[in-house]
Amino acid sequence: MVSKHNPSGNKKRSPLSIFAVIGLCCFFYILGAWQRSGFGKGDSIALEVTKQADCSIFTNLNFETHHNDVEIVEPSKPKAQVFKPCDVKYTDYTPCQEQDRAMKFPRDNMIYRERHCPPEEEKLHCLIPAPKGYMTPFEWPKSRDYVHYANVPHKSLTVEKAVQNWVQFKGNVFKFPGGGTMFPQGADAYIDELASVIPIADGSVRTALDTGCGVASWGAYMLKRNVLAMSFAPRDNHEAQVQFALERGVPAVIGVLGSINLPYPTRAFDMAQCSRCLIPWTANDGMYLMEVDRVLRPGGYWVLSGPPINWKTYYQIWKRTKEDLKAEQKKIEELAEQLCWEKKYEKGDIAIFRKKVNDKSCRRNSANMCKPRGSDDVWYKKMETCITPFPKVSSASEVAGGELKKFPARLFAVPPRISKGLVEGVSVETYQEDNKLWKKHVNAYKRINRLIGTARYRNVMDMNAGLGGFAAALESPKSWVMNVVPTIGKDTLGVIYERGLIGIYHDWCEGFSTYPRTYDLMHANGVFSLYQDKCSFEDILLEMDRILRPEGAVIFRDDVDVLNKVRKIAGGMRWDTKMNDHEDGPLVPEKILVAVKQYWVGGIKGNSTSSAE
């Protein structure tokens, strides 16, 4: 009997249906294996999704300038503290050279114009706003001669220095005719006269120091002679002079010859100049001239134009007596002899001295020589009234400290400090390997950001410069690099100068000696690993934001765990960021984080901000 629950009874399944089921199972098994093998489309689609879902906040960064078209986009993840804009009164904030704090210090020896950084409780924890109407600076070489008024809205120098041809205000721009106090007819003619005595044209002179630089027109015009000048001037009543220099695309820092050493190594510069810099060279028994001698290379040149040179012509204009000026010049020449300098030229307003290549023929009657100290330990060290001794030589013709090749050959030649074994842990072989490595790194950076190496990034800073490999690989007339050697790391700044590059000592726990918005591109290699137990990442990043121009870029290279912390903080700073693998692949724990600062400006009132109009 057939059950009503099983109308077909005990009917058996046919062999055909069983074979069909087995066949389908085999087909799907083979199809799955084929896709897993990498030849199927399913795997490529999954791979593409994986590529798109990387660890970035932003998958695509735009490095172009486009401020009028950009709206402020607040980063949404990872969740981070959002930093508010500072009040617009801080637009030109320089943390370690603020006027209110400076006035609390003695005026003797310009102490009040030196670095005086805020204590922890006074540090700002906000974003420094750009002035309303801020624009991307003109590209070099046009920037040498023109600056947008909106970027540095200070006209006082156009009045104070009108007859000296420093700067003129025309329409909505400042024009820099290339004049100076001692070269009102232009820097080119002045440099031509110097070049009649000093071998500027053949690459013998590559690094120069301009003490009391004004708007750095001398340094600006030395660049076309392939000379890099480190210019400095205090933040004083000559409003924004260093800010103008950097806006023009010329290397400069806020600084002064005061009571502490200049932040440069011994034997750094091929020449130094004072063009009516008004530094009292004979004060403190010649201490300031001795400091210039410390940083001047054996065989280097010192140029003095201005008081007391040509005192017979100018004594009435300078409102000083003939006797006073004559005595001052005599004292300078006596000090020069003690320093082992020879006067090579004096005509009109210019005197040129040359430092001898060694001390074999020096006439130093009981000169007060400085006591040896560790390397170039000058950070916040008191300047002393003593003469830095020449390195020892074995013959009268040998250049003390080592002879340098002419530029550009010296850029990749082995620096004397390395060939003589003066840099701990660095040999000729490791130096050459470092150069190869940085060429590889910079090529990788250019693949990430095609604008690197173009005039888009004129002012570049390497925050942890090492042996200068990044700057050397990037070397181009289109840009210059401020090579920063952290004071808590290995002292390599002397090597950097021997390569024909420029730089400065600095501690990144403090504010840098520059104005806001003065660098287009910043490179931070291992900076945060170096400082992770020293000071707050937040403080360093906020200082970087202060220094970086709107729509400027940053390249971080560090351990992935460190960069994840950096990226989280940057997420609250109006920066767009993207994480990239190391050039050698994803298994290398060192990564590259790139960032672009968004364009925004200070509002009219209080802390409000606005995008460009």
TrEMBL record:
One of its GO terms (molecular function) is methyltransferase activity. Its EC number is 2.1.1.-. GO terms for cellular component: endosome; Golgi membrane; trans-Golgi network. It is found in: Endomembrane system; Golgi apparatus membrane; Membrane. Pfam families: Methyltransf_29. The chain crosses the membrane at residues 16-34. InterPro entries: Put_SAM_MeTrfase (IPR004159), SAM-dependent_MTases_sf (IPR029063). It is an enzyme of class 2 (transferase). Its main location: membrane. Keywords: Coiled coil, Glycoprotein, Golgi apparatus, Membrane, Methyltransferase, Signal-anchor, Transferase, Transmembrane, Transmembrane helix. It is a single-pass type II membrane protein; Single-pass membrane protein. Residues 315-342 form a coiled coil. GO terms for biological process: methylation. Signal peptide: none annotated. It comes from the Eukaryota. Belongs to the methyltransferase superfamily. This is Methyltransferase.
